[in-house]
Each structure stands twice: as structure tokens, then as C-alpha cells.
């Protein structure tokens, strides 16, 4: 039994057969998405989300819940089915935007469950009550409302007032962020276990039990006071520019991060993914940076880490797409602290496919799981001895038209009261060295560590 799910059974609205799903959109003057997120705190402080894609053409903020979809078994199909049932009841005019379904999946529902992740079920998605969408520079605010009652006009009018209140606060009131609270402690959890795990995994790979396995570890930070969620999001958006920025708040907890890795985007019938695996740090000078990049492109161990991901994503795309494009050799993807090997994958999505099927087929890629997938997951469960929660899982959005985007939730952490849990890992292949992998995780911890004011281990 999944205790997380039973804990959450009373949350949100179920979709009854009589339910109707109303939406209404207005276009407004530009506003700061974080100011809107913060404006929602007093009334909807327990349920908010924030998202922006890597090129910042799509920004989303949701506050409150019009509907909540959760799932335990067959979680990808279950969310897809629930979403179809819900938007099948959608009543909208042409000028109205599609409501957004936002959420994510945990990395591995079969792993052990640690207390910090209790609020996060194996799959959690929400349609916000009030939704901000900035799409190619235009700003839209929608109200979404699901009801069984025949007479919903009064509630809807109340929501319009709420919408206007939030817009006003975000546009007019001064938006002040609280400072970062002082850190009481920063603890590496089970570093010895991590080093041993990397050692064991390389031996298993040499013995041909698996080909590649990603092993991760965590750091715990404790603060003098609770870390304000908007402050954490503001800090992370300034950390690592060319990345997806996300925050998903469920009750007191918020999972957030800045990931450079797209899992899948569907836009107008095209599907896009990215193989991101294999890493080296940034150079201190432009020249050193370039030399490090060239070294990474030539490095056998990193190319091997990368190739497993390319092979797997290519295989999935050949199954789901009618045509396909994959580059033969990787490029470099440079973000603030790290450079990765990067191969974009693109295809024309076959008829009758949906984003949840693709997410299911792709998750976890060998950039976060391993090869073969099942064996790698079993080794991760045995060796890591921790609950990754939503770290390394798919996080993102979709709409009724079938468009949407999911990123791989790495470079991420969970804010939980006065504590934060940060996660980072790396792909282990036969030639991996525990001390080198350990160093690589420190580089990957940096964006969230810096955002929270932790010490970087330089
Ligand atoms: C597992 C992580 O990164 C993955 C993504 C890119 C590069 C990776 C690597 O070089 O090991 C990892 O596969 C992480 O950031 O926690
Ligand atoms: Mg690596």
C-alpha cells in the first residue's frame, strides 16, 4: 500500500459524472510571474506552482486547485485517463486558453519512502484555480472551475474578483522578497554509502550485471527560520539562466530546481527530446572552458555515458514517431557551473499518441536510471538506500490540445519547513572513479546550494 496516497485521499475534487469544467481567460498587461506567485500566498499558500521553459517563451504560475489528479499504480495511464475525463467536460469559448495541467511523477514509486516526501504521491497533477500563462510575451490569466452544482454563477463571479485581486497585487503592490534565513547546518548524508555504492556498481558493471547505473546522494540544510518559497524561486531563476525553472508546492513543502534537461516537448504534432549526459566543470577563463569542452567531447567514459541515453531515446522515438532526426555526434550544453554532452532528438509524432505515453516510455532515461532499465532501478534501490522523491522524475505541463513539456527534475531540492534536501547524482559506467563522481555531484549541487545560501565545497 502506498501510504502517501491514502493520506491524500481527501484532497481536491474528484470528477463526478455531472461535473462541468469552466474556464475563462483575460489578457492583461505584463506582470512578474513571481509577484503573482507571491500574491497567491495568503489565500492559496498551500497549492502553488511555477514553471518557465529554458528559452523563457512559456511561463506558468498556478495558485489554488480546481482539480487534483493523483495516481499510484499504472500512474502514467491513470493520469492521462483522468485528464481526458476532466477536459472532456470542459466548457470554453474560443478566446479562452486551454487550462493547464501541471505536475510530476516521482522517480521510482517502488523505492523506500522517506519522511520528507510524504506529501508527494507517485503522481501528482493539478489544474490551478487561477492560472497565469505568459506565452511569447503575452500575458493571460485564466480562472478554472470544476463543479457538480448546476448553479455555479455566484462562485464563478467570486473567482473573477479573486483573479482581479491577484492581478492588482502583482502589478501594483511593491513586491518585496524576504532575505535568505541563516543556515544552522549543512550535512552530507551517507557519503560513505555513496562512495561504496559507486564502487559496488562499477564492479557489477565489470561483471556485466548492468551496463550503466546512475547513483545519487543528498545533502540536508537546516535554517534558522522557514525559507520563503518565492525567495527560493527568485534565487534559483537567477542561478542558471539557460534552464527550466520549476517549483511545485504541496502543503508546506515545495520541490524546486533549475534543470537543463528536457525530457519531452510536444508542440503542434512534433516531439522533441534531449540526451543530456556526460559532464565536466566550467573553466576559469574562456580558453580553459573551451579546452575542457573539447576534452569532454573526446572523453571515452563520458561519451559512453552519453551514448546509452542517445540509443534509448532514439529507440523510443522510432516507436512513437513517423519520422526522426538525431545528430550523429554530441554538442556541448553549457550552463553556469557545468558543461554536458548534448544530443537533441526530434520527430513527427504518430497519430493517437499522447504526452503521457511518451513520458512513460522515456522515464527514466539512462541519464537518471541506467541500462538495462529494470536492472538499473533494482541496483539503485539496493545501493542508494534513499528515496529520490521527485528528484530525477518528470515534471511539467500539458493542455487539452495535447501540447506540453516535461523536464527531468534534476539540480533540484525539497524545501520542507526549516529544512531542505538537495539531490545530485551521476552516470556510473565501468571506468567511473568514486572520487571523480563525488566531485561531479558537488558541481551539480551548486545551483540549488547557491540559491539557498549553502557552502559550495570549492
Ligand atoms: C543525475 C544528474 O545528472 C545527469 C544528467 C546530466 C549529466 C549526468 C552525468 O554526467 O552523470 C547525469 O546523467 C544530476 O544532476 O543529479
Ligand atoms: Mg557523469
From TrEMBL:
Family: Belongs to the isochorismate synthase family.
Record key words, sorted: Isomerase
Record-listed E.C. numbers: 5.4.4.2
NCBIfam families, alphabetized: isochor_syn
Species name: Sporosarcina newyorkensis
Catalyses which reaction(s): chorismate = isochorismate
Protein name as annotated: isochorismate synthase
Keyword Ion transport among UniProt keywords: no
GO biological process: salicylic acid biosynthetic process
Primary enzyme class: isomerase
Pfam families, A to Z: Chorismate_bind
Superkingdom, taxonomy of origin: Bacteria
Lineage: Bacteria, Bacillati, Bacillota, Bacilli, Bacillales
Entry's Gene Ontology molecular function annotations: isochorismate synthase activity
Amino acid at each position: 500500500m502506498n501510504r502517501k496516497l491514502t493520506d491524500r485521499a481527501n484532497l481536491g475534487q474528484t470528477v463526478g459524472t455531472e461535473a462541468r469544467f469552466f474556464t475563462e481567460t483575460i489578457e492583461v498587461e505584463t506582470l512578474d510571474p513571481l509577484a503573482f506567485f507571491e500574491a497567491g500566498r495568503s489565500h492559496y499558500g498551500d497549492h502553488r506552482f511555477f514553471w518557465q521553459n529554458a528559452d523563457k517563451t512559456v511561463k506558468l504560475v498556478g495558485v489554488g486547485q480546481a482539480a487534483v489528479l493523483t495516481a499510484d499504480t499504472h500512474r502514467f495511464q491513470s493520469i492521462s485517463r483522468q485528464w481526458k475525463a476532466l477536459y472532456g467536460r470542459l466548457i470554453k469559448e474560443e478566446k479562452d486558453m486551454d487550462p493547464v495541467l501541471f505536475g510530476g511523477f516521482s522517480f521510482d514509486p517502488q523505492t523506500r519512502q522517506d519522511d520528507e516526501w510524504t506529501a508527494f504521491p507517485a503522481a501528482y497533477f493539478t489544474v490551478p484555480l487561477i492560472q497565469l500563462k505568459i506565452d511569447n510575451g503575452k500575458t493571460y490569466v485564466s480562472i478554472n472551475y470544476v463543479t457538480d452544482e448546476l448553479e455555479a454563477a455566484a462562485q464563478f463571479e467570486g473567482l473573477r474578483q479573486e483573479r482581479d485581486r491577484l492581478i492588482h497585487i502583482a502589478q501594483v503592490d511593491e513586491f518585496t522578497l524576504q532575505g535568505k534565513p541563516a543556515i544552522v547546518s549543512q550535512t552530507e548524508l551517507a557519503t560513505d554509502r555513496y562512495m561504496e555504492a559507486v564502487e559496488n556498481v562499477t564492479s557489477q558493471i565489470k561483471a556485466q550485471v548492468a551496463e550503466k547505473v546512475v547513483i545519487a546522494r543528498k545533502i540536508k540544510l537546516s535554517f534558522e527560520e522557514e525559507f520563503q518559497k518565492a525567495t527560493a524561486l527568485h534565487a534559483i531563476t537567477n542561478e542558471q539562466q539557460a534552464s527550466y525553472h520549476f517549483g511545485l508546492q504541496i502543503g508546506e513543502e515545495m520541490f524546486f530546481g533549475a534543470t537543463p534537461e528536457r525530457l519531452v516537448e510536444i508542440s503542434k504534432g512534433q516531439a522533441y527530446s534531449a540526451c543530456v549526459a556526460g559532464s565536466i566543470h566550467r573553466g576559469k577563463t574562456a580558453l580553459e572552458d573551451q579546452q575542457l569542452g573539447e576534452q569532454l567531447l573526446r572523453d571515452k567514459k563520458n561519451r559512453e555515458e552519453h551514448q546509452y541515453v542517445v540509443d534509448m531515446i532514439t529507440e523510443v522515438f522510432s516507436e512513437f514517431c513517423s519520422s526522426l532526426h538525431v545528430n550523429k555526434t554530441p554538442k556541448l550544453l553549457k550552463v553556469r557551473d557545468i558543461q554536458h554532452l548534448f544530443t537533441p532528438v526530434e520527430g513527427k509524432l504518430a497519430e493517437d499518441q499522447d504526452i503521457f505515453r511518451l513520458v512513460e516510455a522515456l522515464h527514466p532515461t539512462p541519464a537518471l536510471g541506467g541500462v538495462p532499465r529494470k536492472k538499473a532501478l533494482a541496483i539503485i534501490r539496493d545501493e542508494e538506500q534513499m528515496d529520490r522523491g521527485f528528484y530525477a522524475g518528470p515534471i511539467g505541463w500539458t493542455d487539452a490540445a495535447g501540447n506540453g513539456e516535461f523536464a527531468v527534475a534534476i539540480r533540484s531540492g525539497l524545501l520542507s519547513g526549516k529544512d531542505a534536501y538537495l539531490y545530485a547524482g551521476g552516470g556510473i559506467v565501468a571506468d567511473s572513479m568514486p572520487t571523480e563522481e563525488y566531485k561531479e555531484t558537488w558541481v551539480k549541487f551548486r545551483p540549488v546550494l547557491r540559491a539557498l545560501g549553502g557552502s559550495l565545497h570549492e
